[in-house]
Design a protein that fits this description.
Layout lengths: L13 H33 L6 E3 L2 H36 L23 H17 L4 E3 L2 H7 L13 E4 L1 H24 L9 H8 L45 H27 L5 E6 L21 E5 L1 E5 L6 H39 L13 H6 L2 H20 E4 L3 E4 L1 H23 L13 H7 L8 E6 L9 E5 L37 E5 L9 E5 L29
Parallel strand pairs: 4-5
Antiparallel strand pairs: 1-3, 2-3, 4-6, 6-8, 7-8, 9-10, 11-12
């Protein structure tokens, strides 16, 4: 049976909702300003009295997209939180919610329109466009690089060095990407019935086990020591384990996420290797440079032809020019943006999927706090919890940094068009490797302690929690394991003793005398004589093997759980006295 609910204990997390609405409003405002600003920039560059351009040092120009990426990540996370919360409760309304955390853009609802597959497809499309345009809004030109190539058709006579040209087309597409996400998030916010905006798995389980929930999760007896890895096993007494299984074997989608993240590493290495070899083999649009510094460098100092295996050699950064210049009109602008977006699509999808790994680890850590002296608190602020989680902060920084590095590896020069830089591609690949290693560590880490792992699996958590309190502790609650009886582990408002590692756990908190299953290797039919194992609740009782021609008629003790009857595999029962 499920624990008794007090509806006042459910944290509806209205402050979290308010912060998400604030982020959503900021996204609407940023999208409108970017869209309107892009139109004004196009007017200035074509008919205005002056161009939309300004001067800024080279290093500051390279760091500017990093600041934009950080702000963009905040906006995307706010809208993504609304969308993921909507998905969670849409799946629950369809009786399809299994884990507290899900891949929101790869999991779709059958009823909720904002969470259908086509809405998710639009959402990921807008996310990719938003990250792809951050490095294309402020376009620079380098006179040394321009002079080395000597193929620009743009008049740079009155164009000072370190001049930044604002791309109106990139601003418009950036604004549309924010407005598209904001539209879908607002749609999800206004049409989804959300019991709680908290991302705490305890709040999710509490709402799902409510007796008024039409798809209520019911606590199953004899599973107080069963982890999510044992979810398919029958409800039988189990001995505690000193260490639990990892997330990669708990959630079916974790392996696919890890595969996608690791796929980025050889893909990035192949990309950088191909571009570098094209430059090295003398491609006419390539420059072989001696500099491997983190930010691209161009000095214009060329190396003598007899010492250069490539078409051109300098002491700056190696580069391959693809063309498609931003000054060739609307077609060139849009083409360069979607070219870079196509390269960035796999990266954006992989980093989105990495959220699942961090969220599963966070869900597990919240419940395991019940074994600590402080206990676990169902009422915690989701936003503050995110900022206090080293895993969430690490992933957030990785997202901003990797997208920024991608912008260094491939970007759009105002006069020359799209350039690819092999050193920066390799640095980007190195960061992609760091993300893959981080995600692998999170996924393979095995939680220590005897508390069964759940990783946000709702049924497993419901089976582990038998008493809901404002602060909960988990541990041994009943039974001593003598006379063949099973002990019971559960939750309580005060610190509980540690579980007994050499004892069996199952049953319920009342008596905790569920008999331990003993397998019968050669089961017999119900018509023939069969063996039943019984347990007595008294101190003098124990296991008794007896011959029985059938079940004891007319007897049922409601305080004792009925034995599991598993197609002849396990046959045992409680013999009442």
């Amino acid at each position: 049976m499920s624990a008794v609910h007090n509806h006042d204990k459910l944290d509806r997390a209205l402050f979290t909702r308010s912060m998400c609405v604030f982020g959503l409003g900021a996204s609407w405002l940023a999208g409108i300003l970017a869209f309107g600003g892009g139109g004004y920039v196009i007017y200035m560059n074509n008919k205005g009295p002056r161009k939309a351009q300004f001067q800024i040092p080279h290093f500051a120009r390279e760091m500017l997209p990093l600041g934009i990426n950080i702000i963009l990540t905040f906006l995307n996370e706010s809208m993504g939180y609304i969308h993921s919360t909507s998905l969670r409760w849409s799946l629950q309304a369809e009786n399809r919610l299994t884990f507290n955390s899900n891949l929101r853009l790869l999991s779709s609802s059958t009823r909720s329109l904002p969470n259908k597959w086509y809405s998710n497809l639009f959402f990921i499309f807008f996310i990719i466009l938003s990250y792809a345009t951050t490095s294309l809004i402020f376009l620079s030109w380098n006179p040394q690089l321009n002079q080395t190539f000597k193929k620009s058709s743009y008049d740079t006579t009155n164009l000072p060095e370190d001049m930044i040209i604002v791309s109106g087309v990139a601003l418009i597409i950036f604004g549309l990407s924010l407005l598209g996400q904001a539209t879908l998030s607002t749609w999800a916010l206004t049409t989804t019935n959300v019991p709680t905006w908290s991302s705490n798995p305890l709040d999710t389980v509490y709402a799902c086990t409510d007796e008024h929930n039409p798809h209520r999760i019911v606590r199953v007896n004899n599973r107080c020591m069963k982890s999510v890895h044992q979810i398919k096993e029958p409800p039988l007494p189990t001995k505690p384990k000193k260490k639990q299984g990892p997330a990669c074997t708990a959630h079916p989608e974790v392996k696919w996420v890890l595969g996608l993240l690791w796929f980025l590493v050889p893909l990035g290495a192949l990309w950088g290797g191909v571009i570098y070899m094209m430059v090295l083999k003398g491609n006419k649009n390539g420059i072989l440079g001696n500099s491997w510094q983190f930010v691209p460098l161009f000095t214009g100092m060329q190396i003598r032809k007899d010492n250069c295996p490539a078409a051109r050699c300098t002491d700056g950064t190696s580069v391959l020019n693809v063309g498609w210049t931003a000054n060739s009109g609307m077609l060139g602008n849009v083409g360069s943006i979607f070219l870079i977006a196509s390269f960035q699509a796999c990266l954006t999808l992989a980093l989105h999927c990495a959220e699942l790994l961090v969220n599963l680890s966070r869900d597990e850590a919240i419940l395991r706090m019940a074994t600590t002296p402080k206990g676990t608190d169902p009422r915690y602020n989701s936003i503050l919890a995110a900022f206090s989680s080293w895993q969430t902060i690490t992933l957030f920084l990785f997202k901003a940094a990797v997208h920024w590095l991608f912008g260094l590896a491939i970007n759009n020069d105002f006069t020359l068009g799209v350039n690819m830089y092999p050193p920066q591609i390799f640095y980007f690949t190195g960061f992609a490797l760091a993300v893959a290693l981080f995600s692998t560590y999170v996924s393979l880490r095995r939680p220590a302690g005897s508390m069964p792992a759940s990783f946000g699996h709702l049924q497993t958590m419901a089976d582990l929690i038998d008493d809901w309190d404002d602060r909960m502790f988990w541990g041994h609650k009943a039974g001593d394991g003598r006379n063949g009886s099973a002990c019971f582990a559960g939750t309580g408002p005060k610190k509980l003793p540690d579980v007994l590692l050499d004892k069996w756990y199952g049953g319920t908190a009342v008596g905790a005398v569920t008999p331990i299953a003993i397998p019968i290797m050669q089961p017999q039919s119900m018509e023939s004589m069969h063996t039943v194992y019984t347990a007595h609740s008294g101190s003098t009782g124990g296991w008794t093997q007896m011959q029985n021609m059938g079940p004891r008629p007319g007897y049922h003790d409601p305080t004792r759980p009925m034995a599991y009857q598993g197609a002849g595999m396990y046959n045992y029962g409680y013999h009442g006295v």
